[in-house]
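Quality-control log, excerpt.
Job 1 of 2 completed; input and output follow.
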Amino acid sequence: MAVQAQGFRAFKIGWGPFGRTNSAMDESIVRSAREVVSTDSLLMVDAGGDAFWAQDYKWAVRTVRMLADYDIYWFEEPLPPDNLHDYVLLRDHSPVPIAGGEVLTRRQSFAPWL
């Protein structure tokens, strides 16, 4: 991989068909990425869970367990941004760190998360 040869050691994948087709496609994407970057590099997955995200907590839990098998460094935006309750549950049950909040733009949006 050309960017790895330049010294990059962390890569983030996601969006596109990830989370939008089926779990077999999701795992295929992650497996392929892990094979390319190897375990010498950090690999993060961004589900792109924006306001129109159709996936739910059950999907996120199943997916995060699969991601753990591929040594994923973090799972980003697995749920809609206003679903604080399910983010808390997911964080409490996830073997992979959960990232999110990039769409929160006002201090009022951040207050419940703090």
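Job 2 of 2 completed; input and output follow.
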Amino acid sequence: MANNLTAAKSGDRKLALETLRDTLAAQIDTTEANVHAQLSAQYRATLLELAEIAGTLTKPKGSLDELKHRREGRRTTSDASANA
């Protein structure tokens, strides 16, 4: 396994994030409780980026993107009705 510096220098974003993920997980297990919140927040953000890269991130129903898409669909429909 690469260390963080080697992974960062590789230019491979996925490798760098996976290395960071592993480092953060190890630190959460070995550090004092007073830094767990900070490490956990960074760990969750790193997992989110990895999911985005892998294309496995699913947006919850009712997300802002879904609402925007539905709103735009209604506008297109109402515009077409008005022009008919």
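Post-run check on job 2. The mean pLDDT is 83.
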